[in-house]
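Entry type: protein chain
Record version: 2
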Amino acid sequence: MTEQQAAAEQTAAEQEAAAAAAQHPARVVVLDHGSGNVRSVVRALEAAGAEVELTADRDRALAADGLVVPGVGAFAATVAQIRAVGGDRLVERRLAGGRPVLGICVGLQVMFDAGDEHGERTAGLGQWPGEVTRLDAQVVPHMGWNTVEAAAGSALFRGVEGERFYFVHSYAARRWEMEQIGSLKAPLVTWAEHDGDRFIAAVENGALCATQFHPEKSGDAGAALLSNWLRTLPRSPRESTA
């Protein structure tokens, strides 16, 4: 097969996927664990074409095409809130079945083994090895627009690799410690830098994706990123209304 034929097949597949997505919008649950204002996340996903529900209902979260785990504020408080509604088990169950999950801001941080805030270590959800620590910068928090070093082959950043995204955080994962295992596809890690300190801005690891920045506050670039994520979601069968 020539490169031109391969490109044509890829384009046809993308058009078919886009048509299917338009006919059957992705059903997304935003986990309602008591985080701050998540209505902007709901609105952004709706604007991107998803059917969105804000809930902590176990069955609804497990049945959704995608689950979004938002988070603002402190690592320890967010982990406690997620565990209080059984969100840790929901994430585990979904990922065990290859069902997509997207973490946002502290929702990325809690996917790591632990967070260290003010000298106090709190266990995270343990999906990725490593620790979240305070940024080593003169100006903290890192607040405002910043560019990222998008990973080669990223599906999330397709078409917005050179755009800026909105960050608000004082802590970050500053090392990636997961090694590739056998023939499994290596996670794609996107980086950013603040005041000379390099940190993880996003991760694409099979069914689990997450961003340190807020796509819902990142204008057109964030909207495009959310649309890219929605396009990756497998659509579950709809119940007949006949």
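Comment: The radius of gyration is 18 Å.
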